[in-house]
Amino acid sequence: MSKTWFITGASRGFGREWATAALERGDSVAATARDTATLDDLVQRFGDAVLPLQLDVTDREAGTAAVRRAHDTFGRLDVVVNNAGYGLFGMVEEVSEAEVRAQFDANVFGALWITQAALPLMRAQGSGHVLQVSSIGGIVALPNLGVYNASKWALEAFSQSLATEVAQFGIKVTIIEPAGYSTDWSGSSAQHAEPNPAYDEFRGKVMAGRAKAAQSAGDPAATAAAVLQLVDADEPPLRVFFGKAPLAMATKEYERRLATWREWEQLSIAAHGG
Questions:
Q1: pLDDT value for 186
Q2: Catalytic: which of 28, 86, 135, 148?
Q3: Residues 260 and 236 in one domain
């Protein structure tokens, strides 16, 4: 059976690849973008199977209205993809309050508002699948991306709780954790804090390492088949990596955490008292 999708940030990157893949196989897609002109080619190619919606995900009322319009147009919502978001580059000391709040508005609250709008509709139909686009930065914390990391950790936390809450209604949740891909994430869509010269030397080393890693960045088009496999799975995973690098990074991260917790276990026990 064909599925109906709601995808935020469908103008480029993962959102565009996944919208196209869904449409090519005969699914229907409500595709959101800040500028719907970026979706004109999809409308010309797929006609009524695609519903272009202008949306800034930080506007909660607009997000709720967009979800309802998609449901009213297609009659159901099978897959909701919270893909809209951006990267904020800056050391923790450098980022301003406005930059931090804007990052969370887009990456955390935007996904939360869309999720909350979709859940009653999915509960009523007894099924649904929410895909939350996180990052390898959702389980590790990388320098010069502290606030971005924090936004993805927050997204993962509420999504894991959500998965246990809505399973009883036939609703599934999957957190997608990509590593580096050749998208515009670190390009024109990114934001950069005002640099503090005290961090210039360290920043240079971090950026050099990131540039080297970018040489082996993944191909966004290769993720399309993976996403289709996820939404077609009877028992999709709560978490899944996209790319070659994440598993090694996660393994190193969690081995380091466990080693530290074990090293300080006696202090932990003593702190229990009694």
A1: 64
A2: 148
A3: no
Query: From CA 152, how far away is CA 139, in angstroms rounded?
Result: 8
For the residues 4-19, what does the mean pLDDT come to? 96
Mean predicted lDDT score pLDDT of the chain:
95
Instruction: Clarify whether 148 is annotated catalytic.
Output: yes
Catalytic residue (one of 11, 28, 134, 151): 134
Q: What is the pLDDT of residues 85-112, one digit of tens each?
A: 999 999 999 999 999 999 999 999 999 9
| Cα–Cα distance, 111 to 123 (Å, whole number) | 18
Catalytic residue among 3, 152, 159, 186: 152
d(Cα 180, Cα 186) in Å, to the nearest integer? 10
> Cα(33)–Cα(70) distance, rounded to whole angstroms?
14
In total, how many domains does the chain have? Answer: 2
- Do 139 and 174 reside in the same domain of the chain? yes
205 given a catalytic annotation:
no
- What are the structure tokens assigned to 272, written together? 């229990």
- Determine whether 86 is an active site residue: no
Q: Which domain holds residue 268?
A: 247-274
